[in-house]
Amino acid sequence: MRARKYISSITRYIYDSEKKLIEVIDSASYASSSNETDRAYFFYDEKGVLKTSTHYRKQYLDYKTEYSTNPLKVVKIGQNDSMILRRHTVEYDRDFYKKSTVGYYWKPTLKHISYFDGTDSSTYSYSDYKDLRKIEDFTYITNQFNSNDQLISSNISQCFMVNPTTWRTNKIRLTYNYLEGGLLKRVIGYIPYYFKYEFYN
Question: Whole-model pTM?
Answer without folding.
Answer: 0.71
